[in-house]
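From the shared-data thread, chain only:
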Amino acid sequence: MSDSLTALVALLQGLIRALDALLRRLYGITEFTADPQCLLRIARSRSPFALILSDGTPVPKGAPILDLHFWNEHIPRMGPTGPDLAWGLRFAHQTRHSLRLLAHHLATRPDLADIVALRAETSLATEIGWSRYVDLARRLGFDIILLPPPTSPLGRLARLAQHLYVWALMLTFNHPSLRGKNPLAAERGQIWISRHRLLQRYAEPLTLPVRHRPDHAP
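Structure, as tokens:
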């Protein structure tokens, strides 16, 4: 890579980092832990539509939810050839660890007692295949839905901007992940999990210290 191209990429990455930080402030996206292995940030939101999750939890339109966002700086770095088995195992471990941290946070914060469900929205690479996304989501306890394509010109432009922004984040924080992906062919999807299921699957039981009675106690 030439020096001028390297400088251009570095400039673009700096701009994307600045834009990412600005959008986090605008949308109230915050860290809920200082754990360097956590992959998630959160923001309070409202459900944009009504749905019933697979565990039977109803989510009315406008219900309080938590939006989940990747903590891009904490995603494991890939090698130059893209994701391999070692990367996949590390990512899976950090994902489950992050969900345990999130469950603990949700269970111990009174200001989040009204949260009904949690969701994340992202671009889905068509090269990977829908069935693989569904399988991964189910193994983690999530439901996944494919968002319908927009019908208006403004909606299609907004969808394209979303895909390109995700592509720019990948270029900035983990560029080998772009290998073999076409951002213009991606689709948008959401993954959902109810508060109940998150706590049921990932909240670790409270461990109390064992109090031993003295030998001479009656």
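The chain has a mean pLDDT of 86.
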